[in-house]
Design a protein that fits this description.
Blueprint: H1 3-15, H2 19-26, H3 32-44, H4 48-61, H5 66-78, H6 82-95, H7 100-112, H8 116-129, H9 134-146, H10 150-161, H11 164-167, H12 170-183, E1 195-199, E2 207-208, H13 213-216, H14 223-232, E3 238-242, H15 252-260, E4 266-271, H16 278-285, E5 289-293, H17 300-306, E6 307-308, H18 312-329, E7 335-337, E8 340-341, H19 349-358, E9 363-368, H20 383-402, E10 406-409, E11 420-424, H21 427-430, E12 446-450, H22 461-466, H23 475-478, E13 479-482, E14 487-489, E15 499-500, H24 506-510, H25 513-523, H26 533-536
Parallel strand pairs: 1-3, 1-13, 3-4, 4-5, 5-7, 7-9, 8-9, 9-10
Antiparallel strand pairs: 2-6, 11-12, 13-14, 14-15
């Protein structure tokens, strides 16, 4: 078998997710095709640093290998190294001028830089190449609106709504109608929600020291609301299931199965993992479902101390079962290791990375504890703990990258000020296959913002208001957040509730007076009593995820 045949065999193994065998074949070949596929393997494993080195080696072997230029551009785009991303995108488009997907990616990059006219221009090139492509039309309509040209945006979505392919697809029709209604700045919507965070119960099977949900432990969304959620699933792009522990709920597997039937829906489940079994993992393996596992320790002693009532042995058996299901089904089940760092476990961060490697986690996210004085090392600052973490976290991060595990570090340990605000990040941005490197999801991880501004460069809110009159947020047009005891608001950063599922249906809440008020005020740039400072400053803009895809 010659080298080209071996490379083709390795590519087939990569497609089958048999990465180790593919890597063994490719490592023995020293040509641009083999090195390119090795780089692809590193990307699949989430190790962009190694992928970058290998793509550069490809270009040393052949400076005109345009695919390597493109993949480098995508890596730098994900890493927000914008100048390098633009450099390599330009190298690619100088040679290949008919790739609509690439022009869309460049448009997104321009948008992230605030160059909205260039974003429209670039996405317009993609649309000109493929005028009948539905998803490109969606992007163009959104780009027009982001640039402040609501009229052109409205025209794009009106045209989409007239197409038979849209009319005959309930998901696409709802999406186009929703985007049209946003551009029209409508207050009463015909379209349905496209994303949801659903805390559907507060019952739990364990009683953690750093959580109080289990103390309530008696509430569950009424059946009529659960039925409504299921009826909305075919229209949605993202849903995040939260508890308590959702796998305690009778009927949750049936709800999960209904979501799996919806090809456009990404589901994320926050769980302690202890109730995962062959039955629910079989369902998960069939669809686009991801697991965020709350595991506060890498040692039996610390894990069981923090998570009272949990069994470390049971947890490890479940994690082995997930590995077996992946292997037997070929399913890509993304798992996210989500520890809360506190007094009991901060010395285990390095071990957590080894734990993540052993059980083949997709990513690990270090979250700082909030509240709970006995375990809190952040408020007030425990200098001894901070000194230790400053030394160990860079080592842990490097090791994680070596293992191909994405490492999200939300520890506020290098801040010079003593006052720290914690804000919710977007679950679609932190979790979710569509948003893996876009930094989705909401879908309730945390990141930090320093009062002194060391970590974040805030935008002047008055300047943001004047920026071509674009709205700071689309959440009230696109999302619902169902919180503990049935309280509802558009999203986690929104300050005012719109009502409760105890008294109203989701349909009623979606166009309630308070939700209309959110839409009216945001459309008129009069939102200061509804929105968090991070949103007002322009630091966060709540839109449905438009990711940089891993190609």
């Amino acid at each position: 078998m010659d080298s080209r045949e071996q490379v083709e065999k390795a590519k087939q193994l990569i497609n089958e997710n048999n990465l180790k065998e593919a890597e063994n074949i490719l490592s023995a070949i020293d040509d641009k095709y083999a090195v390119f596929e090795l780089a692809r393997i590193k990307q699949i494993q989430g190790n962009d640093n190694e992928a970058e080195k290998k793509y550069k080696k490809v270009l040393e072997l052949d400076p005109h290998y345009d695919k390597a230029d493109l993949e480098l551009a995508r890596i730098y785009h994900r890493q927000r190294r914008t100048e390098l991303a633009m450099k390599y995108y330009k190298k690619f488009t100088d040679k290949i001028k008919d790739n609509a997907d690439v022009y869309k990616e460049i448009g997104r990059l321009y948008e992230s830089l605030g160059d909205l006219e260039s974003a429209v221009s670039s996405i317009g090139k993609a649309s000109a190449l493929y005028p009948d492509d539905i998803m490109t039309s969606f992007e163009l309509g959104i780009a027009y609106r982001e640039a402040g040209n609501d009229k052109e945006s409205i025209n794009v979505f009106k045209k989409l709504l007239s197409k038979d392919i849209i009319k005959n697809d309930k998901f696409l029709y709802n999406k186009a109608l929703n985007e049209y209604e946003i551009s029209m700045r409508k207050e009463v919507l015909e379209s349905k929600p496209r994303a949801m965070i659903g805390m559907i119960m507060n019952k739990c099977n364990i009683s953690c020291r750093i959580c109080d949900i289990w103390r309530e432990g008696k509430w569950q969304e009424p059946d009529r609301i659960l039925k409504e959620i299921v009826e909305l699933l075919p229209y949605m792009e993202d849903i995040c299931w939260q508890g308590g522990e959702v796998f305690l709920m009778d009927g949750f597997n049936d709800m999960l199965s209904e979501g799996v039937k919806c090809k456009n829906l990404n589901q994320v489940i926050f769980t302690n993992g202890l109730l995962l079994n062959e039955k629910n993992l079989e369902i998960i393996a069939k669809g686009n479902v991801e697991l965020v596992l709350s595991i506060d320790g890498a040692r039996k002693e610390s894990y069981e101390y923090i998570r009272r009532g949990a069994s470390f042995e049971k947890l490890c058996k479940v994690l082995e079962l997930i590995k077996e299901v992946r292997k037997s089904t070929g399913a890509k089940i993304n798992t996210y290791y989500n520890p809360v760092i506190c007094r009991t476990n901060y010395k285990e961060i390095d071990e957590m990375v080894e734990f993540a490697k052993k059980y083949e986690f997709t990513a690990i996210t270090l979250n700082p504890i909030r509240g709970y004085p006995e375990e809190n090392i952040f408020e007030p600052i425990d200098e001894k703990a901070f000194e230790y973490m400053r030394k160990i976290i860079p080592t842990a991060e490097a090791k994680s990258k070596e293992y191909g595990i994405r490492f999200n570090n939300w520890m506020p340990i290098n801040c010079e000020c003593n006052e720290i605000n914690f804000k919710h990040s977007i679950i679609e941005e932190e979790y979710g296959s569509k948003a893996d490197e876009n930094e989705a999801a909401a879908k309730s991880a945390s990141s930090e913002v320093c009062e002194c501004g060391n970590e974040v460069n805030f935008v002047n809110p008055e300047q943001e208001k004047k920026k071509n009159n674009r709205m700071i947020c689309y959440a009230p047009w696109q999302r619902l957040l169902l919180d503990n005891m049935g309280q509802v608001r558009p999203y986690a950063m929104c300050t005012k509730w719109v009502g409760s599922t105890e008294h109203f249906s989701l349909k009623e809440l979606w166009n309630s007076r308070n939700m209309q008020l959110y839409r009216k005020k945001i459309a008129n740039n009069d939102f200061h009593d509804l929105c968090q400072p991070e949103c007002i400053s322009g630091q966060i803009r709540h839109k449905l995820c438009r990711p940089v895809e891993d190609k």
